[in-house]
Specification:
- The structure holds 2 protein chains of 2 kinds.
- In chain A, 67% of the residues lie in helices and 0% in strands.
- By secondary structure, chain A is mostly helical.
- Chain B folds into 5 domains: 103 residues, Alpha-Beta Plaits, CATH 3.30.70; 212 residues, no CATH class; 89 residues, Calcium-transporting ATPase, cytoplasmic transduction domain A (Distorted Sandwich); 155 residues, HAD superfamily/HAD-like (Rossmann fold, 3-Layer(aba) Sandwich), CATH 3.40.50.1000; 105 residues, 3-Layer(aba) Sandwich (Calcium-transporting ATPase, cytoplasmic domain N).
- Chain B contains 27 helices and 27 strands.
- The longest helix of chain B is centred in the last third of the chain and has 36 residues.
- Classes of the chains: A mainly alpha, B alpha+beta.
- At the A-B interface, helix 1, helix 2 and helix 3 of A face helix 2, strand 3, helix 5 and helix 6 of B.
Chain lengths: 57, 738
C-alpha cells in the first residue's frame, strides 16, 4: 500500500491543476460571452485578439 | 408606444461623448449596444472596424449581451467617430449608460461559478477516495489505510465546504436573523453537521464518514443556484439593452444661441431645449415656439395625437410628431410627471411584497419537519438505550438524507428550462418569481393603446372614397411622417399615384400641393375646410379638399394587434376573466371591446383609477395579471399580482413589468401563461418525487441503515430524477412544434 503515498498526492495535484485552470479561465473572462466564444472559433485567422495586436504595433 | 414612432428615426441621437468614462490609465472607455450583431461575421466586422480606428486600444464585442466595449486614447479620437465608424460598416450602435452598467450585478454569477469549481473539484476527489473506502469495506482494506483515506477526504472537504458553502450559509443566516425559514437553513445545517460529524468520526477512526455527501450536496445545489442566477442575468441584460436604446440626452439652446447635447439629468427649469421632429420630449416644459402634434399615448393612453402650440404644456417621454419645437423646461428631471408616476408606483407595490416563493413556502413546512424528525430520532435511539454517539450519528443521517437537495434543484431547473423556452418565443422573464405568480393568475387586465392595439391608426373608410381621390391623398400623404399620413399612404391599396408639385407641410395643420392649377389640401378639418366629425366615430380623421369641391373625410382607427382576438379567446379558454382598462375615450374603448369580445371594460381611467380597480379585484381574491405598456400603466403594473409589457413600452413600464414580450403579436402572452402553468405543475411533481424519495429514505435513516454509500446513491438519484423531469418542459415544446 506504500504506492498510495505517491498516487494520492499525484491525483490531488492533477485535480488542483484542473481547478487552477478553471479559476484562471474564469478570471480571464472566458465565461462572460459563451455565445461569442462558440462563434469566434470560426474566424480563419489565428489572431483574434484586437487588443494584443494593437499593443504590438 | 406605437410602431409608427419606432419607425421615425430619433434624429438627434444622444451624443456618445456624454457616456464616455475615463479609465485610471487616462484612456476613454465607452460601452455600446449593437443590437444587430448575430454571428461570427458581425462580431469580426465590428471588432476589426473599430481596431482600424487610430487610437483604439481595445475593442471587444460580446455576442451574448450584444454589447461592445471600446477603450481608446482620447487625444487621438472623439467618441462620435466610433459610432460613425460602426454606422459606416452597417451597425447601429447606441451608447449604453454606465449608470445602468453599474447597477448590474455581474459578480454574483462569477462567485457562484468559482464556488461551483471548488465544489466540483472536491466532490470528484472525495468521491475517488470514498469509492475506494466503500469497496475496501467489503474486501481487505486495513484500518490504517482507511484512516489515511478519511483524513485525505477531510483535508479536501473542510476547506471546500468552508468556501463553496458560503452562498447557502449567508442566505440561511439572513433568514434566521429575519426570524424566518428558507430552504437554505436545512441545507446549511445538514452540510455543517455532516462535515463536523465526519471530522469527529475521522478523529476517532470510525468506519463511516459523510464528507462525500456534504460536498456532492453542495455541488448539486450550486448548479441549481448558478442556473437560476444565469437565467435571470440574461433576461435582465436584454431588458437593460432595451432601456439603453432610449439613450437620454437633450439638445440645449445656450443663451448665446448655440446648441449642444446635454444629459437629461442636468436639465434645470428655465433652460431652453429644441425637440426635433420624431424625437422624444426630454423634460416637462412649456412650448415657446413651434406648432406640432405630440403623441401622448405613453402618458395618457390616448391614441390620437394632441396638437400643441406656443403656451401648451408638454410632458417628458411624449413624442414630437410634427415640426421642431422649442421648449422652456419647467421641471427638473426628478420632479417631472414621470418621476411622480414612479413614486405612485413605489407606493402601489403590494401584491409583490406579500408573495412568498413556492420553494420558501415548502421550506416553512419542510425545515421544521426535518428538524423535528432528526430530534425524534436522537430521542428514540437514546430511549432505546443506545450510546449517545450512535444516537447522534443516526440523527445526523436523517438530516443528511432529508437535505433538500432535490428541492433545491426542483425550482431552479424548471425555472431555467421555462425561461429558456420563453426567451426563444420572444418573452423575457425579468422577475425571479414571475412564472410562479403568472401561474396563479386568474384574471387578465389589458390596457388598450399599444397593448391590445398597435397604437397605429388604420384607414377605416377606404371603400367610401373615390379611387382618384384616394390616390391623390395617398400621393400627398406619402410626403409626410405624421402617423395619420403614414397610415393613409400605407392603406394597402395599389393605385397609380398622380404627380404633385409644390408640396409643403403646414405644421399642426396638414399638407398642401398643386395638381395642375388645382390646390390640394390634406389635413385637419379647419385646414381643409371639412365639416365636423362623424356621429359615432371613435378615432381621428383627415380631410382632403380638391380645388373648390367639398372636402372628403378619411376616418382612422387604431389597429388591434393581428392576433388580439385569438389571444383573448385562447385566454378565455384557459379560464381567465378578461378586462379592459384604458385611459382612452369611451367610444374607442367600447368599439375595441366589442370587436374583441371583452364584456368588462372601463374607459378614461387615470393611473390612480387603474390601481383602485386592481385593488378592488384583489380584495375580491382575484389574482390579476396586468398587461400594459404606457407610462400611465406603470403603477398598475406594479400593483398587479403579475405584469407583462410589450417590448416597445415606456421605460418605466418595462422596469415595473415581470415579463416583456417582443413583436407585434399577442400570442407570446398565451405562451407565457401555458409555460408558467406547466412549470408550476413540474415544480409540484418534482416536490412529489423528492418527498417520495424521502418517504423511503427517512425510515431507513431513522432505523440506522443509512450508510454513506446509501446516502450518496439516494441523493444523486433523486437529483437526477428531478432534473430529468424538469427537462420534459422542453420536450413538450418540441411536440407542440410538430
Amino acid at each position: 500500500m506504500n504506492i498510495l503515498v505517491f498516487l494520492v498526492p499525484a491525483a490531488l495535484i492533477l485535480g488542483l491543476l484542473g481547478l487552477a485552470g478553471f479559476l484562471w479561465s474564469l478570471r480571464s473572462g472566458q465565461y462572460d460571452d459563451l455565445e461569442g466564444a462558440a462563434e469566434r472559433i470560426l474566424f480563419d485567422d489565428d489572431d483574434d485578439k484586437p487588443d494584443e495586436k494593437k499593443n504590438r504595433d | 408606444m406605437s410602431d409608427v414612432a419606432a419607425k421615425v428615426p430619433e434624429t438627434p441621437r444622444a451624443d456618445p461623448g456624454l457616456f464616455v468614462r475615463t479609465t485610471p490609465e487616462g484612456r476613454a472607455r465607452l460601452d455600446l449596444v449593437v443590437a444587430g450583431m448575430h454571428c461570427a461575421g458581425c462580431l469580426r466586422k465590428v471588432e476589426r472596424g473599430l481596431a482600424e480606428l487610430p487610437g483604439v486600444e481595445y475593442a471587444r464585442a460580446n455576442l451574448s449581451t450584444k454589447r461592445v466595449a471600446v477603450r481608446w486614447d482620447p487625444a487621438l479620437l472623439r467618441a462620435g467617430a466610433i459610432t460613425a465608424k460602426l454606422a459606416d460598416i452597417g451597425f447601429d450602435a447606441v451608447p449604453f449608460d454606465p449608470k445602468l452598467l453599474g447597477s448590474m450585478d455581474d459578480g454574483e454569477g462569477r462567485a457562484l461559478l468559482r464556488a461551483l469549481g471548488v465544489a466540483g473539484f472536491a466532490a470528484a476527489n472525495v468521491m475517488l477516495v470514498s469509492v475506494s473506502v466503500w469497496s475496501g469495506l467489503v474486501t481487505d482494506m486495513d484500518d490504517t489505510t482507511r484512516a489515511f483515506f478519511h483524513w485525505i477526504s477531510a483535508l479536501i472537504a473542510l476547506p471546500a465546504v468552508a468556501y463553496a458553502g458560503q452562498p447557502f450559509f449567508r442566505s440561511a443566516l439572513r433568514a434566521l436573523r429575519a426570524k424566518s425559514m428558507n430552504m437554505d437553513v436545512p441545507i446549511a445545517l445538514a452540510v455543517i453537521l455532516a462535515t463536523a460529524m465526519s471530522l469527529v468520526q475521522t478523529i476517532v477512526n470510525a468506519h463511516h464518514v459523510y464528507f462525500d455527501a456534504s460536498v456532492t450536496l453542495l455541488f448539486f445545489l450550486l448548479i441549481g443556484r448558478y442556473l437560476d442566477v444565469q437565467a435571470r442575468a440574461k433576461a435582465c441584460s436584454a431588458a437593460q439593452n432595451l432601456l439603453g436604446l432610449r439613450a437620454v440626452a437633450a439638445t440645449l439652446i445656450a443663451p448665446d444661441g448655440s446648441q449642444r447635447s446635454i444629459a437629461v439629468d442636468n436639465l434645470e427649469p428655465g433652460m431652453r431645449v429644441i425637440v426635433a421632429t420624431g424625437a422624444r420630449i426630454p423634460a416637462d416644459g412649456e412650448v415657446l415656439s413651434g406648432i406640432s402634434d405630440v403623441d401622448t399615448s405613453l402618458v395618457t393612453g390616448e391614441s390620437v395625437p394632441e396638437a400643441v402650440k406656443p403656451g401648451s404644456a408638454v410632458f417628458a417621454g411624449t413624442l414630437n410628431l410634427g415640426a421642431p419645437l422649442i421648449l422652456c423646461v419647467t421641471k427638473r428631471d426628478d420632479d417631472s410627471l414621470l418621476a411622480e408616476i414612479v413614486r405612485l408606483m413605489e407606493s402601489a407595490e403590494q401584491g409583490r411584497a406579500r408573495y412568498v416563493r413556492i420553494a420558501d413556502r415548502a421550506a416553512r413546512i419542510y425545515s421544521p419537519a426535518v428538524h423535528i424528525m432528526a430530534f425524534g430520532t436522537l430521542g428514540l435511539w437514546f430511549a432505546l438505550g443506545a450510546h449517545w454517539e450512535t444516537a447522534l450519528t443516526h440523527a445526523i443521517a436523517v438530516l443528511i438524507v432529508t437535505c433538500p437537495c432535490a428541492l433545491g434543484l426542483a425550482v431552479p431547473v424548471v425555472q431555467v428550462v421555462a425561461t429558456g423556452r420563453l426567451t426563444r418565443q420572444g418573452v423575457l422573464v425579468k422577475a425571479a418569481d414571475g412564472l410562479e405568480r403568472l401561474a396563479q393568475a386568474d384574471t387578465v387586465v389589458f390596457d388598450k393603446t399599444g397593448t391590445l392595439t398597435l397604437g397605429r391608426p388604420r384607414l377605416m373608410n377606404a371603400e367610401e372614397i373615390p379611387a382618384a381621390d384616394l390616390a391623390l391623398a395617398m400621393a400627398l400623404a406619402g410626403k409626410s411622417r405624421h402617423p395619420l399620413s403614414v397610415a393613409l399612404a400605407g392603406c394597402g391599396r395599389t393605385l397609380p399615384l398622380p404627380v404633385l408639385d409644390d408640396i409643403h407641410e403646414e405644421p399642426g395643420m396638414g399638407l398642401q400641393a398643386k395638381l395642375g392649377d388645382e390646390t390640394i389640401r390634406l389635413g385637419n378639418a379647419g385646414f381643409a375646410g371639412g365639416s365636423g366629425r362623424g356621429p359615432e366615430h371613435a378615432g381621428s380623421e383627415l380631410w382632403l379638399r380638391r380645388g373648390t369641391k367639398p372636402a372628403l373625410c378619411f376616418r382612422f382607427e387604431d389597429t388591434p394587434r393581428p392576433d388580439a382576438k385569438e389571444a383573448i379567446a385562447a385566454l378565455k379558454a384557459r379560464g381567465f376573466a378578461i378586462e379592459l382598462l384604458s385611459g382612452d375615450r369611451e367610444p374607442a374603448v367600447r368599439k375595441l371591446a366589442d370587436e374583441l369580445g371583452i364584456s368588462e371594460w372601463r374607459a378614461a381611467a387615470r393611473p390612480d383609477a387603474k390601481i383602485a380597480r386592481l385593488e378592488e379585484l384583489a380584495a375580491r381574491g382575484r389574482k390579476v395579471a396586468m398587461i400594459g405598456d404606457g407610462l400611465n400603466d406603470a403603477p398598475a403594473l406594479r400593483a398587479a399580482h403579475v405584469s407583462i409589457s410589450p417590448s416597445d413600452a415606456a421605460d418605466v413600464s418595462q422596469t415595473a413589468a415581470d415579463f416583456i414580450f417582443q413583436g407585434a403579436r399577442l400570442s407570446p402572452v398565451v405562451e407565457a401563461v401555458d409555460v408558467a402553468r406547466q412549470a408550476r405543475r413540474l415544480v409540484f411533481e418534482n416536490f412529489g418525487l423528492a418527498l417520495a424519495y424521502n418517504a423511503v429514505a427517512v425510515p431507513l435513516a431513522v432505523a440506522g441503515f443509512v450508510t454513506p454509500l446509501v446516502a450518496a446513491v439516494a441523493m444523486s438519484s433523486s437529483s437526477i430524477t428531478v432534473t430529468l423531469n424538469s427537462l420534459r418542459l422542453n420536450l413538450g415544446k418540441a411536440k407542440g412544434n410538430r
